[in-house]
Amino acid sequence: MMLNRQGRPTTPNQQAESDAAGTITGNRGLLMEEALIFEQGEAGRTGVDLPDAPKVQDRLGGLKRQGRIGLPGLSEPQVIRHFVRLSQKNYSIDAGLYPLGSCTMKHNPRLNEKVARLPGLGDIHPLQPVSTVQGALELIDQLAGWLKTLTGMPAVAMSPAAGAHGELCGLMAIRAALKARGDVRKRILAPESAHGTNPATAAMCGYTVDPIPATADGRVDLAALKAKLGPDVAAIMLTNPNTCGLFERDIKTVADLIHGVGGFFYCDGANFNAIVGKLRPGDLGIDAMHINLHKTFSTPHGGGGPGSGPVVLSDALKDFMPLPYVIHDGVGYSLVEQDGGRSFGRMKGFHGQMGMFIRALAFMLSHGGDGLKRVSEDSVLSANYVMASLKDIMSPSFEGPCMHEALFDDDFLKETGVTTLDFAKAMIDEGYHPMTVYFPLVVHGAMLIEPTESESKDSLDMFIATLRGLAEKAKRGNQATWFQGAPRLTPRRRLDETRAARSPVLRWKPGTNGAPVGQAAE
């Protein structure tokens, strides 16, 4: 029988986990089984002694709490151990290779973190007088200069908070430019392999989305594009390199066709890490492109934290960029909050995410122009190494070399009884976060792998050997042992993900005799 932290018998589900682990506690060596913090709490237990609150007349107008606040009673060691144990269950780029395609999960250099915490940078406030943050504004201006140089674009809006916010910025600038010339257009063209945020952003701006199919080699079908051109096309939203990890060979032709009907070219810059220092998007005829600083310039990625998605703009759109923006008048730096011009307005409260700006500029300065070019070259080399090493046993979706990410489909799993999901879950037992699966949607059972430039050859070789081993076991019929129900070695087994998404347990309540019961929020 498995016991919980209070020495009481566990629930049936926890007992099953203990049996699977093969231990009395449910622990696996230093991988500790951990109950919910509410399960561990007991009334009256505390890590601090607080004096009684003074008796005062409250001003809550009858809204004073009647019951207990519901926080668990815990000692300080319990709290520390709980969150340390939870942290040990996280997978991170600091723990191992993170092969998520289309996400660019690269190493975050510790130098960036040190710089972001320097006095005068880590302790400033957005409401300080401009005269007291001249260094910060200069830093923003310098970062903007790097982004304009690397993209070959004359202007950049720094305030967007992330990639999707950057898309919104770009389309709002396009909409403002069309309005300024008295041109009402209602259609946005989007390749079928576009990121899902592209059509969502277009719809949010009031446009209808017209999909463009791909050719057999995974690129935009030019004939289909030409057939959909017309005077009502406001823009095309295209990713290059595209979501299949391929460079659009006809990108300049696409730009000329869109401009020929009076539309604009929006480029999704999520994959800029593949071409930075090698190619300037402005030279391709692109009018607007967001840049995910977390993907290309190593600022922390995801987790609900701050993001940053600056948008570079062409001459045709630069006058419509959002407020505020930094200028230098020959004496000092200032923020333009109102320009009396054609800007479409403000996108957020302040000028952007300062912590991300600092980290991105630190990455740029530490690498230099030649180093950023090498970053791009190494990321593409790594992906092609993975592709070349696996193409004989897995099934590449398209012929030929890729850019920064290698795309496979599930054809190699046919008649094995193993699905893409099974394969991905088995990777967890091997100590790897799975690659992006089932995306892009245009590829059946997709497995999208982006190793980035962060990984050594030894690291890639171990990853490749692991995937080869799993592919071999799938083809030998080892479904029940290696894939069915995987992962087997994690703190929790495979979830019913469909049920979890449709009927999430969002609220915990204590049950009878202290046994925890999950109850959906009302």
TrEMBL record:
<dbReference type="Pfam" id="PF21478">
    <property type="entry name" value="GcvP2_C"/>
</dbReference>
<dbReference type="Pfam" id="PF00266">
    <property type="entry name" value="Aminotran_5"/>
</dbReference>
<keyword id="KW-0663">Pyridoxal phosphate</keyword>
<dbReference type="GO" id="GO:0004375">
    <property type="term" value="F:glycine dehydrogenase (decarboxylating) activity"/>
</dbReference>
<dbReference type="InterPro" id="IPR015422">
    <property type="entry name" value="PyrdxlP-dep_Trfase_small"/>
</dbReference>
<dbReference type="InterPro" id="IPR049316">
    <property type="entry name" value="GDC-P_C"/>
</dbReference>
<dbReference type="InterPro" id="IPR015424">
    <property type="entry name" value="PyrdxlP-dep_Trfase"/>
</dbReference>
<protein>
    <recommendedName>
        <fullName>glycine dehydrogenase (aminomethyl-transferring)</fullName>
        <ecNumber>1.4.4.2</ecNumber>
    </recommendedName>
</protein>
<feature type="domain" description="Aminotransferase class V">
    <location>
        <begin position="199"/>
        <end position="302"/>
    </location>
</feature>
<dbReference type="InterPro" id="IPR000192">
    <property type="entry name" value="Aminotrans_V_dom"/>
</dbReference>
<dbReference type="InterPro" id="IPR020581">
    <property type="entry name" value="GDC_P"/>
</dbReference>
<feature type="compositionally biased region" description="Polar residues">
    <location>
        <begin position="7"/>
        <end position="17"/>
    </location>
</feature>
<feature type="domain" description="Glycine dehydrogenase C-terminal">
    <location>
        <begin position="377"/>
        <end position="479"/>
    </location>
</feature>
<keyword id="KW-0560">Oxidoreductase</keyword>
<dbReference type="InterPro" id="IPR015421">
    <property type="entry name" value="PyrdxlP-dep_Trfase_major"/>
</dbReference>
<feature type="region of interest" description="Disordered">
    <location>
        <begin position="1"/>
        <end position="22"/>
    </location>
</feature>
<comment type="function">
    <text>The glycine cleavage system catalyzes the degradation of glycine. The P protein binds the alpha-amino group of glycine through its pyridoxal phosphate cofactor; CO(2) is released and the remaining methylamine moiety is then transferred to the lipoamide cofactor of the H protein.</text>
</comment>
